[in-house]
Design a protein that fits this description.
CATH superfamily: Winged helix-like DNA-binding domain superfamily/Winged helix DNA-binding domain
Radius of gyration: 12 Å
Low-confidence stretches: none
Number of domains: 1
Structural class: alpha+beta
Strand content: 5-15%
Order of helices and strands: HEHHEEH
CATH topology: Arc Repressor Mutant, subunit A
Helix content: 40-55%
Mean pLDDT: 95
Largest sheet: 3 strands, antiparallel
Number of helices: 4
CATH class: Mainly Alpha
Distance between the termini: 9 Å
């Protein structure tokens, strides 16, 4: 169930959504899209997305140490927030 997020996180979501839409992406791809040089900060961003229900995470098919991410659509997020 999606929860509202602070504006600074919503801006980053918008950047990622514009780049990837509903396609899967990896950590390094998100890093490039957000022009983020700090891995820890990006980990916090992705973790907050997941905790708030805006992001789905699964294991990478080739390496269990990596993750694959997929954003929920803005429409789906709005509907989930409205249901609360």
């Amino acid at each position: 169930m999606a929860e509202p997020m602070p504006k600074w996180l919503t801006k980053r979501y918008a950047i990622l959504w514009k780049k990837f839409k509903d396609k899967k992406f990896e950590f390094e791809e998100a890093k490039q899209a957000l022009n983020e040089d700090n891995d820890k900060r990006l980990s916090v961003i992705l973790s907050d997305f997941r905790k708030n229900g805006w992001l789905e995470v699964e294991l990478h098919p080739e390496s269990s140490r990596k993750r694959v991410y997929k954003l929920k659509s803005p429409e789906e997020i709005i509907l989930e927030i409205a249901e609360k």
